[in-house]
RNA sequence: UGGGGUGUGGUGUAAUUGGCAACACAGCAGAUUCUGGUUCUGUUAUUCAGGGUUCAAGUCCUUGCACCCCAACCA
């Protein structure tokens, strides 16, 4: 953290926890949990929740568990359980104990449900979903009580046991809490506690035919685990009275947990909705959940985003109750900051043209010493082969340069990084008019990259010796969604998908030491940006993020 | 239509809880530089609107306005 202040975010959540601790609420304890549903992979939005849940607990000497909210057998799967555990660890967090599962509490939940029935606080409703929904009423309109609302506890118990035994068809009945059909908060109009599903559950198998809803499972799971502060996103705000109501009816031995809501993380040019992300994968718009353009944790990882940068970003943006959308540039600035300090520098030519040094002694190869990371002297130097035939970036030569173009042009002298000064003497182009070869002479006195007479050059360029070059490819990425807020203008998120979000350049030329770059490692291609080595395909690199590019701005300003 | 939540530069987050509106990102200008990178310096720009209380209001009161969430047997 060089250019960022040492902030101690005293947000409203921390303020609350501090006050609770001071008053010794919850016996002076703090315990949180991160409760994903295993029906998809984690994304950048989850990273905010994870950082909050885990950091908050550790800051105040408590613990945080990973708990799978696996109450819906329809969509959940063990592949997601494993994926989530893996992504969480990559981010830098592990569950305080073994990962927990709401499904482990099904029996306790069931017993408590029977208790509510016994006390006349829950009933079995034989109506279908549509009828129940209609009877719920509307905003400003009171609901209508179900004709089954006044069944006796005995009858309810019998029916509920029948439901559990698998004697009832899916959708034929539900268990509902008996609260208040007139309540101004729709959540309290006799919410559904159990639905019938004859579905295989990823953990409990076929043991159950009824499954608890989110509201009935969540707070109770928190209570069972001893959670004190249950953090969730803003849309659950109106569920809080229900969360509290359920807990208040149960014979708990500890203080009931408390739910607190905060604003979810939204980013410009991206979507964070499992459904949308699944569509991108299903429609083949991206190559999978770990496509480097995806905002999933596995996508960002493959793209080369350091976990630490993501964590710092999440900490930095803090937590509030204001719906907002952060500019993705802020996240990228954390990524750059981290990579600038840590990524080894390499020379790679992604759009090669030949540079022939006409006065270079034939068949001679020299090795020049190149700094590995100017930001960290201790990373040392490496030897890179230099010869009379090199590759340089096509963009680094122009026969007819515009103003402020500092790179190679006829008659101009520039520096080849850590090697020699060269002066352009001519060039050749192919039938289409594209420059294919540039000719230059070098000054033997400038070896190492400095002129003994002290003369200066306007630019320094990267290069790769043709005879020693390693071939590979580089994928450049643009925003997956061209609109800042996908769907805001077009009405449909998918209409803002950027069809040119990926540019794959095969035929790149890398310096020999690139062979030492480990799978998954991120390096800086000098002057081009940071690139992550694909974990599976050798010599395929994904551009994590570009360098700040002043020339691009100058160029664009004129267009 | 009822209930709940939220409004601070372009973006996001702060403000000792009534006392000079700050920090970062982005932008602009310059310096340094063997990466048009990094670093450094300077700079532009903010309290949703009206009314009220007060010596003093982003903060308190009041009236509006805008946006978000809630009528799944999803979470």
Structural features:
disordered N terminus; Rossmann fold; Ribosomal Protein L25, Chain P; 13 helices; elongated; seven-stranded mixed sheet; alpha/beta
Question: What's the arrangement of secondary structure elements?
Answer:
Blueprint: H1 12-23, E1 31-34, H2 44-59, E2 63-68, H3 78-91, E3 100-101, H4 106-118, E4 122-125, H5 129-135, H6 153-164, E5 174-177, E6 192-196, E7 210-212, H7 214-225, E8 229-233, H8 240-248, E9 258-262, H9 274-282, H10 297-303, H11 307-317, H12 328-342, E10 345-346, E11 348-349, E12 352-357, E13 366-371, E14 381-386, E15 389-393, E16 413-416, E17 421-429, E18 435-442, E19 460-461, E20 464-465, E21 470-477, E22 502-510, E23 522-525, E24 529-533, E25 540-545, H13 550-558
Parallel strand pairs: 1-2, 2-3, 8-9, 10-23, 12-18, 16-19, 21-25
Antiparallel strand pairs: 4-5, 5-6, 6-7, 11-22, 12-15, 13-14, 15-20, 16-17, 17-18, 21-22, 23-24, 24-25
Helix pairs in contact: 2-11, 7-8, 11-12
The chain binds one RNA strand of 75 nucleotides through helix 5, strand 6, helix 7, helix 12 and strand 19.
């Amino acid at each position: 953290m060089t250019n960022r202040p040492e902030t101690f975010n005293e947000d409203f959540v921390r303020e609350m926890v501090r006050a609770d601790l001071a008053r010794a609420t919850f016996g002076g304890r703090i315990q949180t949990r991160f409760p994903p549903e295993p029906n998809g992979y984690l994304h950048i939005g989850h990273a905010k929740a994870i950082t909050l849940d885990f950091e908050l607990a550790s800051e105040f000497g408590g613990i945080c568990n990973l708990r799978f909210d696996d109450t819906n057998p329809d969509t959940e799967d063990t592949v997601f359980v494993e994926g989530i555990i893996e992504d969480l660890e990559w981010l830098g967090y592990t569950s305080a104990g073994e990962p927990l599962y709401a499904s482990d509490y099904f029996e306790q939940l069931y017993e408590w449900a029977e208790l509510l029935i016994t006390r006349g606080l829950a009933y079995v409703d034989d109506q279908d979903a549509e009828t129940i929904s209609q009877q719920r009423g509307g905003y400003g309109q009171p609901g209508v009580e179900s004709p089954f609302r006044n069944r006796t506890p005995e009858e309810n118990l019998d029916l509920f046991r029948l439901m559990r035994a698998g004697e009832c068809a899916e959708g034929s009945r539900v268990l509902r809490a008996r609260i208040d059909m007139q309540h101004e908060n729709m959540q309290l109009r006799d919410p559904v506690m159990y639905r019938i599903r004859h579905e295989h559950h990823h953990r409990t198998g076929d043991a159950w035919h009824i499954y608890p809803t989110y509201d009935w499972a969540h707070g109770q799971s928190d209570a069972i685990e001893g959670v004190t502060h249950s953090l969730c996103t803003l849309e659950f705000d109106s569920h809080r009275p229900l969360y509290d109501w359920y807990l208040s009816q149960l014979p708990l031995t500890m203080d009931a947990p408390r739910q607190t809501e905060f604003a979810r993380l939204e980013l410009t040019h991206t979507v964070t909705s499992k459904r949308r992300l699944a569509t991108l994968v299903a429609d083949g718009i991206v190559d999978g959940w770990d496509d480097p353009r995806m905002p999933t944790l596995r996508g960002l990882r493959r793209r080369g985003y350091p976990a630490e940068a993501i964590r710092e970003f999440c900490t930095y943006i803090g937590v509030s109750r204001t719906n907002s959308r952060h500019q993705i540039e802020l996240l990228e600035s954390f990524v750059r900051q981290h990579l600038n300090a840590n990524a080894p520098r390499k020379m790679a030519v992604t759009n090669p043209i030949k540079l022939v040094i006409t006065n270079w002694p034939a068949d001679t190869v020299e090795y020049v010493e190149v700094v590995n990371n100017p930001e960290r002297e201790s990373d040392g130097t490496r030897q890179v082969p230099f010869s009379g035939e090199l590759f340089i970036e096509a963009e680094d030569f122009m026969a007819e340069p515009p103003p402020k173009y500092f790179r190679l042009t006829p008659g101009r002298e520039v520096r080849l990084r850590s090697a020699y000064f060269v002066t352009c003497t001519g060039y050749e182009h192919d039938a289409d008019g594209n420059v294919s070869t540039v000719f230059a002479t070098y000054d033997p006195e400038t070896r190492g990259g400095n002129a003994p007479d002290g003369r200066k050059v306007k630019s320094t360029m990267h290069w790769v010796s043709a005879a020693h070059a390693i071939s590979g490819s580089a994928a450049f990425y643009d925003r997956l969604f061209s609109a800042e807020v996908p769907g805001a203008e077009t009405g449909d998120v998918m209409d803002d998908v950027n069809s040119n979000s990926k540019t794959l350049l095969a035929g790149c030329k890398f310096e020999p030491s690139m062979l030492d770059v480990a799978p998954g490692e991120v390096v800086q291609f000098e002057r081009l940006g940071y690139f992550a080595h694909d974990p599976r395909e050798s010599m395929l690199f994904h551009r994590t993020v570009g360098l700040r590019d002043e020339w691009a701005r100058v160029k664009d300003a004129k267009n």
